[in-house]
Amino acid sequence: MSIVALTKVPRPSKEQRIDTIVESARKVFCACGFEKGSIVDIAADAGIAEGTIYRYFDGKRGLLDEVLRRHYAAIFDDVQQTLPAIEGYGNRLRYLIRRVLLAISSNRGMCGLITRDLRQFDTTQPSLAQSLNHQIGILMADEIKAGIKRGDFRSDVSPGIVCDMIGGGLELIAWSYMTNGKAIDVDKVTNAISRTVLSGIESNNATTASLASLVTRLEQTADRLDSA
Fold first, then answer.
1. What is the Cα–Cα distance from 170 to 101, expressed in whole angstroms?
2. pTM metric for this prediction
3. Which domain covers residue 146, as residue numbers?
4. Residue 153, φ and ψ in degrees, nearest 5
5. Rounded to an integer, what distance in angstroms lies between the CA atom of residue 52 and that of residue 43?
């Protein structure tokens, strides 16, 4: 009779357990909504006992905050890596608008969680999503302020009002997507918002400089064609 050696399966680390719980919470909240999604559902999806969740989180609100923190962390990481390499404050603002639209369109469940379910919380205690959305608004405002300082944007532009207009438009797009599920043409919507905003805030000097740059590039292209 042969003896089969049993291999001891290593227990998941604390970090692995937390990652599993948070991912299960994300799936449950996106599928069922925050109110209907339960700790029981999350534990079942994670394949653990309910009590294990409470070892790391104080309840659903704590789980929701961690889901949101990770969702926005991916956005901010991408912004931090990409934005510095983009030239021109108009282009940088356009990139930020597009990045938010990508986040909205990539996950309808998360979009619904942010735009609908978080409204139930007491407004005296803003949700983490509201705070993180505010940080995105600050990034946009900083680009507008820098553009004003360099002369790309008009000096009488209010960065706060412009950001409120952009944020309001993006929120309406997110709400529509969450309601009807119609796919968002990210590039088309980005171009529409950017054209509308930039046409109102760009300075005459910036427009003239942009046209001069375009003429220069066309002349350089023509020279290359003539010499070919």
1. 7
2. 0.78
3. 68-204
4. -115, 155
5. 8
